[in-house]
Predict the structure of short-chain-enoyl-CoA hydratase.
Amino acid sequence: MKPEGLRQMPQTWHGACIYSLQNLEYIRKQNDKKESRGGLSMDYQDIICEVRDGVAYLTINRPEVLNALRMQTKEELEAAIDRIAADDSVLGVIITGVGRAFIAGNDISEIRIDAKGEETIAMSTQAHRLFDKFEAMDKPIIAAVNGYALGGGTELALACDIRIASDKAVFGLPEVTLGVAPCYGGTQRLPRLVGSGIAKEMLFTGRKVKAAEALSIGLVNKVVPGEELAQQADAMMRDILKNAPIAVRTCKRLVTQGQAMALADGLKLEAELNGMLAETQDAKEGVKAFFEKRAPVFRNR
Ligand SMILES: C/C=C/C(=O)SCCNC(=O)CCNC(=O)[C@H](O)C(C)(C)COP(=O)(O)OP(=O)(O)OC[C@H]1O[C@@H](n2cnc3c(N)ncnc32)[C@H](O)[C@@H]1OP(=O)(O)O
């Protein structure tokens, strides 16, 4: 049951776009009104957002439907991502799911069998807007994949920078078994990560890919025992946050933007951004600390 004030999905494409943006505004206002607990931690219905020592932990919290993404879940995620992006005290993000699923895909109960094309376009456009924000955010995002990551679940993980999987994780893009194709970016991000051959096999067959195979094809960075997932994701984030934040976010920007560029243009951008980095306090501190044989103290400037 939607909380008071959230609008029901209208029938027209135009209405769907307004619905989504208006609800996003509504969720933001609700959280602005609420006394936030410890900085950014806020109350949502479908997700849990907590901040500890500079890291925002986003947890999908719909275990009764294996964390399937309904429109409200995506709106809450977008509201949280917007606030995280704007909060300089947050330096990294870890996303995971409650229970035995990471995200078992888009909420199939929201897929109307007599849906008009424009409704699907609106749904896809909203997810693209959300996942583009993951890539545009200048903070590292780790997906801690704790279980089923199917359809939109694999697509959300693909929009993160790094994927660490539990040995119980299962990936896949089964949309063709439902008569549709992935429409949250999977057809574009998967081939860029694992190559078009493996990507086409996963897309055409819709088959599941267990953690060990996901590691072997480069879909995930590492596989760990389920009970160690949270600790290992945290440890990798802490390793990243030991480094100069400006340099880390420059690397994220170069990889993300470079993928859409010709090599020559990407190399030009790499040189330019490194020229900017060379003039930062952090670059001077890094070299100084090396010769003084001590750990650098980076000030994010
Ligand atoms: C652009 C993006 C498009 C998409 O993402 S399309 C959707 C892609 N995802 C899928 O096709 C996966 C659908 N789910 C499944 O295949 C199975 O689930 C699993 C293999 C993940 C797990 O199977 P098992 O262990 O037998 O659990 P269970 O009884 O099927 O599921 C437990 C409860 O979770 C609900 N649920 C699971 N996935 C979804 C979903 N994607 N949307 C809505 N509900 C879902 C079920 O219905 C059920 O609920 P109840 O206990 O009330 O029967």
